[in-house]
Amino acid sequence: MEVNLMKALFKKIKKQWQLQAIALFGMTVLFLFSYLPLFEIIIAFKDYSINMGLEGIFTSNWVGLKWFKEFFGFYRFGEILKNTLILSILKLLFTFPAPILLALLLNEM
């Protein structure tokens, strides 16, 4: 009975190969942009240099919060934070209303 079930499953998959290809593409994109960056978070807690290459992520020494302390203690940190907040607020003010206005205009037609 299980053999017949497996044959039916493979027959269904073979029949819907386009759907399977689209699903595989979507899962690949999800993996690349959602799960792969999680491994790169390790770099923030290690003494890593870009010259070390990919193996440097796993072989470099752990430094804990050293890089965070250095960044937050940087003498221009306040200016960097202020500029980031200003740019983010301006981006929201100028880009958020445009699609809503466009949707309202299209809805009124």
Outline the secondary-structure elements.
Blueprint: H1 2-15, H2 17-40, H3 55-59, H4 66-72, H5 77-95, H6 97-108
Features:
109 residues; mainly alpha; 6 helices; membrane; MetI-like_sf; transmembrane
Which segments are poorly predicted (pLDDT under 50) over 5 or more consecutive residues?
A: none
* Biggest β-sheet strands, sense, barrel: none
Taken as a percent bin, the fraction of beta residues is under 5%
So what's the overall shape?
A: flat
Q: Give the terminus-to-terminus CA distance.
A: 58 Å
Oligomerization state of this entry?
Answer: single chain
Count the domains. Answer: 2
List the helices and strands in order.
Answer: HHHHHH
Estimate the helix proportion, in percent: over 70%
Average pLDDT: 90
Helix count? Answer: 6
Radius of gyration: 25 Å
Given helix and strand content, the structural type is: mainly alpha
- How many DSSP-defined strands? 0
Structure description:
This protein is an all-alpha fold and 109 residues long. It has 2 domains: 1-70, no CATH class; 74-109. The protein is 74% helix and 0% strand. The protein has helices at residues 2-15, 17-40, 55-59, 66-72, 77-95, 97-108. The radius of gyration is 25 Å and the shape is flat. The mean pLDDT is 90. Its main location: membrane. Keywords: Membrane, Transmembrane, Transmembrane helix. InterPro entries: MetI-like_sf (IPR035906). It is a multi-pass membrane protein. The chain crosses the membrane at residues 21-45, 85-106.
